[in-house]
Amino acid sequence: MTVQRFYIYGYYGSKNAGDEAFRLAFKKLLPSQAELLFIRPSELAGNTDLSDRIHTDVSTGTSKLIVGGGAIIGEPYFWAHLPANTPYHIISADIGSQENLITTYRASLNPLQRSWIRSEKDSEQLDQLTNNSKDILYLPDIVFCLSCNSKRQAAITGMNRQERNIELLQAMQSHCENSQPESQLRNKNMAIFLSDHYYDYRTIHSSCILDGIERAAADTIHLRQLRQSLDEITAYYNLYFFSLSFWYNSIDFFVGYRMAKASNHAPLYNLVSHYIAPATIIELMPYFDAAISTKFHGLILPMTANVPVLNLGTSKKNKDLCQQMGILSLPPEQLNVNSFLAALKQVESLEYATSLAETRRLATESILTAFAEPGLWSH
Fold this sequence. Notes:
alpha/beta; Rossmann fold; 2 domains; 15 helices; 17% strand; globular
């Protein structure tokens, strides 16, 4: 029977550009005639009617349930509301909390169907946890399959630098709290994706307060080193600070404001002050020469336009992605002006850009091939 409906369970509708990029990717990859219903945990919490309807639709073969994407496997609030005993597929997700997966939610892997995990290490671990009884495969994050319109990208690439940089500045002015004067534009453009997921010691339980204080101090030092590094390159780069998350528990542009407040070059910090949809970000990426990110999808979105990236993030998902895709990383404890400039020199090299472009091409090819399998969703 041909599947008419997909329930896609994830953190959609929360002004997170990475999650919303999954929405775009699923619309591109899943059958065009199918109905896609994106469900978030809060919609299933306490809504037994919806949960029962999903279970019935999937059990009768008229629908499929997809869990993904994101670092959500075993994440307590998310996993607790998965419709019970309902067959599901995991697509483009990884293990958010190994402890929770192995203990509380291990039994919920029983209904798991063919799944594509975006972390190679996690696909192997899931395979072991299910005793090799499930069809669990590694597949790069499906956001890699997105890209800017090819004609638009070619037109931007063909511009002279001054024309391109002016056009980008004008396009970004409506998104930025402040933007530099056109007369002060530099030669190159850098996209910057920073995360505000630092630990405030005032919100941590008293038993962990010393750890929280140490973490807060480390974050302060890290931001100072990063601000000094970025100040150093304002003579060459126009800096655009994007905010990929803009909800109650994550407002990324706050980090850029903290850095600008301490910088003598603040007028050259182009700070995006609101959420921008991923489709818009992808269309802007061809204007950029390089990108740096502490965000997971802040690494992938530039690569959709073959913009070379540098990872500054420390999350498990960032580390896995960088190892799999050959992305250069600079750990916080090694960050200073000299190490940053050395890393940036590598990012600017033709060899690195060529390598990432090929890696991204192969990732896209593998994603499209996987979803093009005849009869993939008909059984």
